[in-house]
Structure formats: C-alpha cells, structure tokens
Amino acid sequence: ETENSVIICDKDGVLEWVNRGFERLYGLTLEQFTAKHGKTIYQTISNPDFKEVVNEAVKNNRSITYNSQFTKETGKTLWLQTTLTPIFYEDGNLKKLVAIDSDITKIKEAEEEIHKQKKHIEEIHKDVTDSINYAKRIQTAILPERTLLKEHFTDHFILFKPRNVVSGDFYWWAEVTNQLVITVADCTGHGVPGAFMSMLGISFLREIVRKEYMTEPSRILHKLRKEIINALKQKNIESEQKDGMDISLCSINTDTLEMQW
Q: Can you say whether residue 38 is alpha, beta or left, with left for phi > 0 and alpha for psi between -120 and 50 degrees?
C-alpha cells in the first residue's frame, strides 16, 4: 500500500492496472479514467514529444522522470511527478511500462511563491539601488569643483574612496575675500545615514562661510557644532546616540599665505 499512484501498461502503453493510490490521486477508477482521457499513457500526456522520450528510455533501458499537470473532475489542477520504468523479458523485448505518480502540487506552489517573493525582492532592490544611485549623483553634485584648488595650488590631490555607493565622508572648500577655507570630514555612519550627515554638514558650512563670512576655524567649528546639535535635536543626554562628524578645517590667507587650523 502506497500513497503514490502506480500504473502498469503493456508494451504499447495501454493502461492495464492501477492501484488504490491512483484512484485517490486522480479521483477516478481505471475504467472512468480511460473513458475520459484515453486508453494509452501517450494520450494522457499533453507533451507531443513524450513518445520519443519513452522510446529513448526503452532503448537505453533506464527510468525517466517528468512533471505534468492534471485537472481533476473537481476542477483542481495537480502537479504530478512521474517515474516511468520499462520492464523487459529475459530475451530483451519490452514487457511492461510501470509509471509511479507523486503529487508535488505543494512543492510547485511553494516554488511559485518563492519565485514571486524573489521577483518582489528584486523589484524592491532595484528601486532602492536606483534611489541610492540617484542620491550619489546629488552628493557628487554638491561636492566642490577642483577649479578653486587649481587656482591656488600647483600641486594637490584628492583621495576620496567611499566604502558604499554614497559616502559619510566629504570634502569642501570656499573662498571668501582673501581667505580660502578648506575642510575634510568623516561623519558618523556609513552609506545612506552617513550621506545624510555629509549633506547636512556641507549645507551648514555654506551658510556659515559664504553667507555669514566666517573664516576663522574656531568660530566656524563652534557654529557648525551648534547647528548640528539643533538640527538633530540633541540634548546632551548620556543615553543619546552621538551623531556628528570628525572634521579638520583650515583657513589660508591667500595674500600672506598664513594658515590657521
């Protein structure tokens, strides 16, 4: 006794015998099944190449496994996995074909669900990746051009290698009258959180240096610290997360070449 369906066919594929598992699986007796779907195993499989597959199995004296769908009288569609084995006489001639069917509907449904979830995750990943790449374009756009450095320095370089697509590090400079303010910073966090902090830092520096005309490093950093604390609503509580940035800033007088740091 087995839960699987067992079908025995003659050498021409005509169905001769089925077990109780067949009747439970298909919901039909052998007589009912052949009357509705045909007397041979070839008639029950929709694949037009199925006979060639069986002939190949017989030729090589080996079992074959294939999947197929079957719709029951109730309208429910089953996924079946069938192992078809040729049986031979001692003289090598084909005697019988034995087919064992297993219901793999739940497996197929699970695979379909996994496929849907995978597709959904890939779509989310694409949306997130596209957003991050767009954020990179914005972050790159707000970083200063090298033109100002080229005007004042014959030899200089920028080493900027973000760990992620967007970065929590930034560099920035600006010239106010005869003062060249240059800064590099490392914000807390990596990736998107760090990038938000870097954009916040650049925005405040623009306000402080370009609009308020501050060029003294101590005053700039003091003002920047106050702006960051206010923006992040930090209250200096011990358990509070300390978001911010490590920053190095210098101011160079382009007339006297005196540098403050």
A: left
The maximal CA–CA distance of the chain, rounded, in angstroms, is 108
> Please, where are the H alpha helices in 76-211?
105-142, 147-152, 191-205
CB-side neighbour CA atoms (13 Å) of 46: 5
Q: What is the mean pLDDT of residues 204-223?
A: 93
pLDDT band at 1 (very low <50, low <70, confident <90, very high): low
Per DSSP, 207 falls in state: I
Fold of 138-260: Phosphatase 2c; domain 1 (3.60.40)
Taking the domains of the chain in order of start, what are their residue ranges? Answer: 5-106, 138-260
What's the CATH fold of domain 5-106? Beta-Lactamase (3.30.450)
The pTM (predicted TM-score) of the whole model is: 0.59
CB atoms within 10 A of CB 140: 11
DSSP assigned state of 209: I
Are 89 and 110 in contact, with CB atoms under 8 Å apart?
A: no
- Per-residue confidence at 168, pLDDT binned at 50, 70, 90? confident
